[in-house]
């Protein structure tokens, strides 16, 4: 049988990695897919940069590749939500399957793209969009399909995990760790999407849709990054037996779905807490399977290409299948998506880490614990530093760190407002959320 023909849009890290892996493993891939998979055209802004794509027609005209009738699959590797959206929708309109690593595009425009693909009877495959080389989309969509998924919690941004590991290992602040990460190429020159949690939020938004059978709704996600995280909180969390990780969390509750990305205290005895450096890991809890964990490289040329090529094989195998016999894009049949609400952050339930600086006088702790008790918030752990151990404090002041049991976030916020109003409390309260994992 003739090889299936692929048009590659973009020849950066992921595009060139895909070309390399496909070429190196072509014989095995052909035996798996049932026919060869061949990149026949590459579109790139600067064709000179794609010289490694030997023997392939290279152009700077992206639309020409998308419109080429000989191309069966368009592989979108350019990123962003502008031109990439136009090209993906155009490829679909031309009846081509799409493979993409573009998390931002699917988190923001997924509903439009999947509907266009459904109407046209083509596939949009996106394993590489979440956690790079870890086959988490496959696991959620197919391997765990028997389950009612209860929760997902993932370290799904390698840049921030590397920075957090450096902050903890070396006791350095965020700015110093970021600078080091940039010098070593772990963080981009403009690291905003990574450090502010946007990249992780895109990925968990996609996972939430597949896990719970809801539309992709990035606009409802709560997004907090690590740029305001203080070194002292990493230290105090460590003293209490926790590591701080940037987690993307999607959780089913009776009231709705929690969809949130923020720094999170994870008990250090959990495997997830021990995922260090630029590695990724995702915990999925299902009612039948229990807790499962997926670990691997979340970025890089060949790990990401591993996911892209897996999608190319899937599409090649299912190319001739009736569209209704294929695995639905979001795991659930498109007419069976639910309208379960995504909860505003004030309505989520969590335990909290609270740090505050107080005047070291009689009764201050009693005042704080009374406020928490009035709100029905129970204390799980408490750490009070001796005044002389506190960094940058005035004489006679100390830090109190509390860990609470679970409560609704707006209840915690109300207690914090009352605590901050006490005359003996001399700082704002730093609030971090605890992982809800077992
Ligand atoms: N920038 C991402 C990370 C990889 O640091 O994990 C691509 O999503």
TrEMBL record:
Example GO BP: threonine biosynthetic process
Keyword set, alphabetical order: Amino-acid biosynthesis, Methionine biosynthesis, NADP, Oxidoreductase, Threonine biosynthesis
UniProt domain ACT: residue ranges: 353-434
Biological pathway: Amino-acid biosynthesis; L-methionine biosynthesis via de novo pathway; L-homoserine from L-aspartate: step 3/3; Amino-acid biosynthesis; L-threonine biosynthesis; L-threonine from L-aspartate: step 3/5
EC number(s) per entry: 1.1.1.3
Binding sites annotated in the UniProt record for NADP(+): 9-16
UniProt xrefs under Pfam families: ACT, Homoserine_dh, NAD_binding_3
Residues annotated as binding L-homoserine: 188
InterPro entries: ACT-like_dom_sf (IPR045865), ACT_dom (IPR002912), Asp/hSer_DH_NAD-bd (IPR005106), HDH (IPR016204), HDH_cat (IPR001342), HDH_CS (IPR019811), NAD(P)-bd_dom_sf (IPR036291)
Keyword rRNA processing on entry: no
Binding-site positions, NADPH: 103
Enzyme class: oxidoreductase
An example molecular function term from Gene Ontology annotations: homoserine dehydrogenase activity
Keyword Amino-acid biosynthesis assigned: yes
Active site: 203 (proton donor)
Top-level taxon in the UniProt lineage: Bacteria
Family assignment from sequence similarity: Belongs to the homoserine dehydrogenase family.
NCBIfam families: PRK06349.1
PANTHER family: HOMOSERINE DEHYDROGENASE (PTHR43331)
Name of the molecule in the record: Homoserine dehydrogenase
